[in-house]
Amino acid sequence: MFPILGPSLILSIILCVHVVRTNQPMYWLWVILVIPWLGAIIYLIAVVLPGLTGGSTARRVTRAARDTLDPNREYRAAKTAFDDIATVHNQMRLAKAAADLGRYEEAEGFYRQAAQGVHADDPTLLLGRATALIELGRAAEALPLIESLGPDTAEGRAPAVALARGRIFEALGRVEEADAAYQAAAGRLPGLEGLGRYAAFLARQGRADEAREAVADMDRRIAKTNPRFRAEARAWRDLAARALAGG
User: What is the pTM of this model?
Assistant: First the structure.
């Protein structure tokens, strides 16, 4: 006689078959089998449900689940694409994926290699490389790249460029110029990164009252933010709060 299978095992078998037949990443087998019921629920919400509904919300859930369970997924995909076809676009994608993982040395190299020939003045490549250099503590090397991207005043630059300029000037001890650049970014950059970094700068300069006012402003904005964007918004708010606390 065949043994009687419990509901959990039956569901796990069905979902494992679904993983294989739909060519899902094999880590889902581990999730389903190692954490019964919970793993099945995660898989149903992240993979099966989006496939049935096809909605944008479901697709976001899928991407979030995959990024959490396999944060290197985009990096591997970008590397495969670049290894197959070594275009500037694919190298730029690989550089961004490396930067998103905190692999700034690698990202800087990819951006530098891509910014050659007709692409030597590409603003996205120059800004990407400059940002990687900032994260590596090499602000002096990043400054000429940022200076090549626009007029001499921070107000004439794209907000992301102004933010990078502010970070560079702060690292170089050029406080007044950093203040102006941070202000330009905080007022125009979408999301709360610009305001969060400016508030942190104010805290580091001993301007605690202004920093607290900026954090309070962020709290008000977060309360009105779409729920799916709140986690990122809170991360920038917390960056400023840590600077206020001396962290």
Answer: 0.72
Q: Assess if residue 54 is contained within a domain.
A: yes
The Cα angle at residue 36 between residues 35 and 42, in degrees rounded to 5? 75
Regarding whether 243 and 161 lie in a shared domain, the answer is yes
Q: Which 8-state DSSP code applies to residue 45? A: I
CA 128/CA 134 separation, integer angstroms: 10
Longest dimension (CA), the chain: 83
Interval 200-245: pLDDT, tens: 999 999 999 999 999 999 999 999 888 778 888 999 999 999 999 9
DSSP one-letter code for 79: H
CA separation for the pair 63, 40 (Å, rounded):
17
The answer as to whether 128 is a domain residue is yes
Q: At a CB cut-off of 8 Å and minimum separation 6, what does 74 contact? A: 67, 97, 100
Within a 10 A sphere around the Cβ of 168, how many other Cβ atoms? 26
Are 47 and 124 contained in the same domain? no
Measured CA distances, 87 to 30, 103, 124, 128 (Å): 35, 21, 15, 17
Q: How many angstroms separate the CA atoms of 28 and 16, rounded?
A: 8
Q: Residue 73, class by beta-carbon neighbours within 10 Å (0-12 exposed, 13-18 middle, 19+ buried)? A: middle
DSSP collapsed to 3 states, 203-239: HHCCCHHHHHHHHHHHHHHHHHCCHHHHHHHHHHHHH
In a 13 Å sphere around the CA of 175, the CA atoms on its Cβ side amount to 7
* Number of compact structural domains in the chain: 3
Which structure tokens are listed for 53? Answer: 């509904």
In a shared domain, residues 171 and 209: yes
| 100 and 40 co-located in one domain | no
Q: Examine the domain organization and report whether 205 and 242 are in the same domain.
A: yes
